[in-house]
Amino acid sequence: MKTIIEPFRIKSVEPIFVTTPEERKAILEQAFYNPFLVNAEHVLIDLLTDSGTSAMSSHQWAGIMQGDESYAGSRSFFHFESVVKSITGMPFIIPTHQGRASEKILFSILGGKGKFFVSNTLFDTTRANIEFSGATGIDLLCEEGKHPAIPAPFKGNLDTVALEQFIKEKGAETIPAVILTITNNSGGGQPVSMQNIKEVKAICAANQIPFYIDACRFAENAYFIKLREDGYQNSSIEDIAKEMFSYADGATMSAKKDAFANIGGFLALHSEALAKECRNLLIITEGFPTYGGLAGRDLEAIAIGLREVMEESYLQYRIRSIEYLSDKLHAAGVPVMRPAGGHAIYIDSKAFLPHIPVAQYPGQALVCELYLAGGIRSVEIGSLMFGKYDEAGELIPAAMELVRLAIPRRVYTQSHIDYVSEVVIDVFQRRDLIKGLEITEEAPLLRHFTAKLKPLQ
Fold first, then answer.
1. Measuring CA to CA, which of 11, 341, 344, 457 is 20 to 30 A from 217?
2. Distance set, CA 228 to CA 220, 232, 294 (Å)
């Protein structure tokens, strides 16, 4: 059949609060034109993030009731550990309260001034933890990924020619790790091919550089490989995932994405010596190594979710539902990243609002307008999130100006998504009336979370 139905039934519901345009105008003003500062009860459709916003299954809720809350050596930890070991093939598994905690621990040990971490595209918290250590994050996205409107099967790939050149210029000794983000969140939720993973691994091995995977959306990436890469059509998602991880020396993961959990993450490693260092830091910052800042019930939910996310019926529904919204917007002329990514729709705000200069943050202007028009909360992934300043205080813009509509897993129905498309298309049809913004207050790192802005007159 042409219709892809949700492979689940809804067992519990929660209310959505409806606001008027007048109320949203006042709310946005009070939030200084930053939807991160808007109370959730004032949001109609929340597409700010897919992190920690998924609906857990009845099996996960049952697992929560069986969580072992022992401080040390809990049964739930060993269940969690066995599942992560099985998927990643890595012997040392360190739980953390979320992905950025794993990053903080890893980069505190590996980072430092004069060092470079190279990636296809680093996401915000990854880059912030690298920079906090004194190191520099370098994005080497493939050329296809830099053109939102031009379809390509694996636009999340790392440019291997540029990687080899960078290693030659800076020296392998200055690069503690190369990191592949799968799928490539900042690059439009685009997948990374198995061939690219193999090529990056080969380059790293030849130069004795450790290779890591940011595995937040590993199952979605594996499904894209099954759909689009020769030789994998008859492979299971689990087998593809295991092969992806087999090339890596380590992995970080926020379990708030592809494990359906509301909190949690892990650091997986092959190196026993590095794992010992990480565990020592874990004890100082997160907790004992067998709970790592998590309740036993959360460890159970993650272990169950990691299995559920690899079910092909779910992944078929997940990827097709993202395509559904992307196709509707594309048909209406809205400039979206093509093809659709795995977890979100990415609108090219530079093409959507060509009259707003980059220095006036067109992505954030669009984010605000979507909230005003329909109570939809989204996030800018552009120069507000990733922009820097030069010595003269002038903005160094991000590579792309995107707005992400991140779809929580198993949360919204087709009618919700149809509503989202109607709001976006309505805003697109009167886009010439939208004005830019300026920053009035910002933090030195991760400024988009707390920045205050105001409209330009």
1. 11
2. 12, 8, 37
